[in-house]
Specification:
Pfam families: Polyketide_cyc (PF03364). The protein contains three helices and seven strands, in the order E-H-H-E-E-E-E-E-E-H. With 146 residues, the chain is α+β, with helices and mostly antiparallel strands.
Amino acid sequence: MAEHTSSSITIEAAPADVMGVIADFARYPDWTGEVTQAEVLSTDDAGRAEKVRLVLDAGAIKDDHTLAYTWTGANEVSWTLVKSQMLRSLDGSYRLAALPGDRTEVTYQLTVDVKIPMLGMIKRKAEKVIIDRALAGLKKRVESQA
């Protein structure tokens, strides 16, 4: 079983505001850094993204992939890889927990498996960099809208 990497951050906003930014895929190129294009391919009955095509440029890793999203209640979203040029698998999730004072703890969990051979230690370090950048970008984006 693949190991995953996770990290958490506290954002000065309500969970609904944080999830609003997470669910707004069209704006990902504005704040994620690595995502240069995002296109929602299909939505569920509630109008939330089910399949999303993302074009990544993360330096050494450039990829065009499609992810399938599953929304669990109002405070959790997870995704899994549908297709990719460089990745064998990409599973992740955002879990939001309300904190006192209109704050939210966001936990991002990620498991990546690339098609090229890579040492587990290097892969986990790359996952950690992706997670930390995403959480910092999310925090900045949400708090700048408050």
